[in-house]
Amino acid sequence: MSRSVRAAMMALVVFSSLMVAAQTRQRHFRFTYAFTVRNLPVGKPVRVWFPMATSDAWQTVKVVSATGDLPLRETREPEYGDRMFYAEAKKATKAEYHFAVTYDVVRRERVGYRDGHFVGPAVYPQSAVLRRLLEPDRLVPTTGKLAELAKVQTQGDTTPMAKARAIYDYVFRTMRYDKSGTGWGRGDAEWACDAKHGNCTDFHSLFISMARSQGIPSRFAIGFPIPENTHAGEIPGYHCWVDFYADKHWVPIDISEAWLDKAKKDYYFGSRGDNRVQFSVGRDIRLSPAQAGEPVNYFVYPYVEVEGKAFPNVRNEFSFADVMGPKKTKIAKK
User: Each residue of 155-205: pLDDT tens digit?
Assistant: First the structure.
């Protein structure tokens, strides 16, 4: 296939996706991603990375303002193409550094599979992309007991869609959304399988592990939820979700949201609403420029290093406001 033909096909895919998106619900809001690095040792080198929201077929993003106590530079990591902001100081001159980025976001409902039919055109990712999305991550194995579990749960299913639905149903009925105790929130698929509870990272890591073991490419995405019935306020934490690839289509799912709103179980197998904003894709992220420490488990919060070691003393402040919405009201943190 020639480069010009391939480019024309990709343009058609993007155009068709946008046409589908135009027929679904959408939400327009401002999102502010702010944080303060605290109690820094003055005189020591400090490096700061944080994710950057970008546009795709399902969200249109514009940076309204980007400020920081250190100069910001936009970079991109090579494996997933995640964009980010980077800042550094050879020697910290004060104990705190503050950063804030405000985005204008139009987020569209994503419908990829409904009533037994795919919505939108076929897509043809590069083979290297699909191979990577069949490989394990540090906390998401593709062999061992989870592969054996997936084999049992998909017994008798002969198509990727049927297998994916069987795994989705297993995670839905077996897991419960419960953030008590310790261990949850790391996206450790084996831990989630044993504990049978956790948050969105645990639900979706279990799905990805089982799906990849059955030859179904699956990608992890993360961002922030936008409350459905509130027009402005603070966002206490992240949310994540999954796309899997079957029959030449990417199929969106969100099992933890389905668990929290069980009437929408079928909706969330193939669709996702407009109440979110995406920031990055993938696990085990090598930042740009590369960090000294280990790969980042998932990249939604700021990552800071001081003298080449991870520095966790960061206070996050995330908020949103609907464009043309009513007066701001504060959301209680969970």
Answer: 999 999 999 999 999 999 999 999 999 999 999 999 999 999 999 999 999
CATH of the domain at 298: 2.60.40.2250
| Burial readout 214-242 (b: 16 or more C-beta within 10 A, e: otherwise) | bebbbbbbbbbbbeeeebbbebebbbbbb
Which domain covers residue 308, as residue numbers?
A: 24-107+291-322
- H or E element: which one contains 88? strand 83-89
| 116 and 253 belong to one structural domain | yes
Encoding tokens for residue 83?
Answer: 């964009």
Estimate the share of the chain in helix, then strand, then coil, as percent rounded to the nearest 5: 25, 35, 40
The two three-digit tokens of residue 321, written as one number? 């406001």
Task: State pLDDT tens for residues 109-148.
Answer: 999 999 999 999 999 999 999 999 999 999 999 999 999 9
Residue 60: which of 15, 102, 33, 27 has the closest Cα? Answer: 27
pTM of the model: 0.90
78 and 122 housed in the same domain = no
Give the chain's largest Cα–Cα span.
Answer: 64
User: Same domain, yes or no, for 197 and 250?
Assistant: yes
User: Residues in the chain, how many?
Assistant: 334
Residue 67 C-alpha from the chain's centroid: 24
Please tell me the distance from the alpha carbon of residue 34 to that of residue 122, in angstroms, as a whole number.
Answer: 38
